[in-house]
Amino acid sequence: MTRARSAQSLILALESSCDETAGAIVRDGRDVLSQFVASQVDLHRAYGGVVPEVACRAHMECLLPGVDSLFRDAAVAPVDLSAIAVTNRPGLIGALLVGVSAAKGLAMAWDKPLIGIDHIEGHIAAAGLAEPELRAPYIALVVSGGHTNLYLVPEDNPGRGGMQRLASTLDDAAGEAFDKAAKLLGLGFPGGPRIEAAAKNGDPEAYAWRKTCLPPDGTNFSFSGLKTAVLYAARGRAGRKGPLLLDEKGVADAAASFQEAVTHALTERTMRAADECRVGWIALGGGVAANGYLRAAMRAAAEKRGLRIAVPPMSLCTDNAVMIAARGAALYDAGVRDGLDLETAAR
Ligand code: KG4
Ligand code: ZN
After folding, report:
1. How far apart (Å, rounded) are the C-alpha atoms in residues 224 and 244?
2. Distance, CA 286 to ligand 1 centroid (Å)?
């Protein structure tokens, strides 16, 4: 890794850490010249979850044609690029390797620097895109299919690993819990949006599940107890293979109570961290932050405390490459460069 300085940037960003193939060309970390997101949801639906081999194959098929379209749409040429930013951690290792290998090939062919991006730091960068006034120190909650982490971001655009992790999940990630609960309630895949839709007709007080997500350590999250509660409510003693015991209203009530329990835990821990760390801002990120019920609860809780909150639009909450470009631009400006030996890491 070498260090240099620059004021302006044109970043090509690639994202392939899970089940979305995404690319973007972004000027100065903010101006989106072109982007694409190829979702694999339809491919994985038949399996009820993300199948790594299927994801890798789809990334292989979509990535380079996508890059081609980016240059056409942005009306810029590879020679104009400042750097290529690529998600190199965390995620499905094979899926990451597709993006990183492609980025290395392009970097070599075009003689451009490479910048490896931490996917979670990308999700946090999305909040800054949505809310340019966001200033450190702030508390960032990243809630996705793979992560449920609370961070203190001590300075604006911190270097790699410059965020302090305050809390995480002891078992399932919040998004994973949404996906599993949806399956148990017969709502299908992906679970987050399906639960949110079903919950609109349900009573969030129907089941008293709030406490299941708050482990006694007073800090972290836990969603496996909630999953078990949903299992018993939905399928009784027969277990996950048993028939669904709830009618449409019952499913709506369980979905609403589930969503309320997760939202309560995320909001409680986030506000507590904001109080303890005495910050003025909260930032949300990750696929679960696309949930309208959670967004509204967080906004209300923040407002009550006089805190400001940065919530990215839905398209920047779920996986995308614009956030990877934004993080890439910040690292580029800080002089961060990686070599062709850039590694990938699942965690
Ligand atoms: O950030 P993301 O797109 O991919 C990962 O990095 O994991 O997050 C995907 C997760 C999935 O578990 C999905 O069910 C959840 O985000 N999700 C939602 C909603 N939309 C997506 N969860 C709750 N409510 C939503 N509206
Ligand atoms: Zn993500």
Report:
1. 20
2. 7
Under a CB-based contact definition with an 8 Å cutoff, are residues 29 and 325 in contact? Answer: yes
Pocket lining: 19 vs ligand 1, CB cutoff 6 Å? no
Q: What does the alpha-carbon distance between residue 53 and residue 258 come to, in Å, rounded to a whole number? A: 31
Q: Is the CB of 175 under 6 A from ligand 1?
A: yes
> Residues 69-79, buried b or exposed e (16+ Cβ, 10 A)?
ebbeebebeee
Ligand 1 centre from 289 Cα, in Å?
A: 8
pLDDT digits (tens, 9 = 90+) for 13-67: 999 999 899 999 999 999 999 999 998 888 888 887 888 998 899 999 999 999 9
User: Which amino acid would we find at residue 226?
Assistant: L
pLDDT tens-digit profile of 172-202?
999 999 999 999 999 998 899 999 999 999 9
Residue 326 phi, psi (nearest 5) = -65, -45
pLDDT score, position 262: 98
Number of H-type helices and E-type strands within the chain? 11, 10
Q: Which ligand has its closest atom nearest to the C-alpha of 49? A: 1
Q: Is the CB of 29 under 6 A from ligand 1?
A: no
Task: Report the separation in Å between the CA atom of 312 and the middle of ligand 2, taken as the mean of its atom positions.
Answer: 13
pLDDT band at 7, cuts 50/70/90?
Answer: low
